[in-house]
Amino acid sequence: MSYQNVKSTFVLGGARSGKSRFAENLAIDSGLERHYIATGRAWDDEMRARIATHKHDRGTLWTTHEQPIALTDTLMRLDAPGRVVLVDCLTLWLTNLMMEEASDIAAESAALAALLPRLSASIILVSNEVGLGIVPDNKMAREFRDHAGRLHQMIAANVAEVYFVAAGLPLKMKG
């Protein structure tokens, strides 16, 4: 089955696991018009350099949309048959929501998960799996891990395919 027949895919993995590259290759292989929603914010020089490297590596065959907060609105705006939209990444989006402090993270997460089955575009969501390590030693980090775990469960329940990537190797978990 070609990727263009799959409406939604969730790609999880640890830091530098190869998950983004795997997700980008799924989008490229789809043959669809490619859109990239980047949720990261350039808080410092190191992050600015990472963002510049990612943009350079993707090249000109992607339309990039930088959106740190209004993810569901951006997905609705970009929704169209014949498109693939890659969101990288949900954990940065979650971080941004937590930093805003005014956001209802549970409601934002539920709204995103509920939107996915209604979209016409093919959607690929990337996120860091943060629940496999030790229990964090501070309240904010524990809240982040808990929010991410709940978000990941909602997303996985509402997509057609789920992959876990480790050491550059994808393991298909659903679909």
From TrEMBL:
<dbReference type="InterPro" id="IPR003203">
    <property type="entry name" value="CobU/CobP"/>
</dbReference>
<comment type="function">
    <text>Catalyzes ATP-dependent phosphorylation of adenosylcobinamide and addition of GMP to adenosylcobinamide phosphate.</text>
</comment>
<feature type="binding site">
    <location>
        <begin position="13"/>
        <end position="20"/>
    </location>
    <ligand>
        <name>GTP</name>
    </ligand>
</feature>
<keyword id="KW-0548">Nucleotidyltransferase</keyword>
<keyword id="KW-0067">ATP-binding</keyword>
<feature type="binding site">
    <location>
        <position position="66"/>
    </location>
    <ligand>
        <name>GTP</name>
    </ligand>
</feature>
<dbReference type="GO" id="GO:0005525">
    <property type="term" value="F:GTP binding"/>
</dbReference>
<dbReference type="GO" id="GO:0009236">
    <property type="term" value="P:cobalamin biosynthetic process"/>
</dbReference>
<comment type="similarity">
    <text>Belongs to the CobU/CobP family.</text>
</comment>
<feature type="binding site">
    <location>
        <begin position="38"/>
        <end position="40"/>
    </location>
    <ligand>
        <name>GTP</name>
    </ligand>
</feature>
<keyword id="KW-0169">Cobalamin biosynthesis</keyword>
<keyword id="KW-0418">Kinase</keyword>
<dbReference type="GO" id="GO:0008820">
    <property type="term" value="F:cobinamide phosphate guanylyltransferase activity"/>
</dbReference>
<dbReference type="Pfam" id="PF02283">
    <property type="entry name" value="CobU"/>
</dbReference>
<protein>
    <recommendedName>
        <fullName>Bifunctional adenosylcobalamin biosynthesis protein</fullName>
        <ecNumber>2.7.1.156</ecNumber>
        <ecNumber>2.7.7.62</ecNumber>
    </recommendedName>
</protein>
<dbReference type="InterPro" id="IPR027417">
    <property type="entry name" value="P-loop_NTPase"/>
</dbReference>
<feature type="binding site">
    <location>
        <position position="88"/>
    </location>
    <ligand>
        <name>GTP</name>
    </ligand>
</feature>
<keyword id="KW-0547">Nucleotide-binding</keyword>
<comment type="pathway">
    <text>Cofactor biosynthesis; adenosylcobalamin biosynthesis; adenosylcobalamin from cob(II)yrinate a,c-diamide: step 5/7.</text>
</comment>
<feature type="binding site">
    <location>
        <begin position="55"/>
        <end position="58"/>
    </location>
    <ligand>
        <name>GTP</name>
    </ligand>
</feature>
<dbReference type="GO" id="GO:0043752">
    <property type="term" value="F:adenosylcobinamide kinase activity"/>
</dbReference>
<comment type="pathway">
    <text>Cofactor biosynthesis; adenosylcobalamin biosynthesis; adenosylcobalamin from cob(II)yrinate a,c-diamide: step 6/7.</text>
</comment>
<dbReference type="GO" id="GO:0005524">
    <property type="term" value="F:ATP binding"/>
</dbReference>
<keyword id="KW-0342">GTP-binding</keyword>
<keyword id="KW-0808">Transferase</keyword>
<feature type="active site" description="GMP-histidine intermediate">
    <location>
        <position position="54"/>
    </location>
</feature>
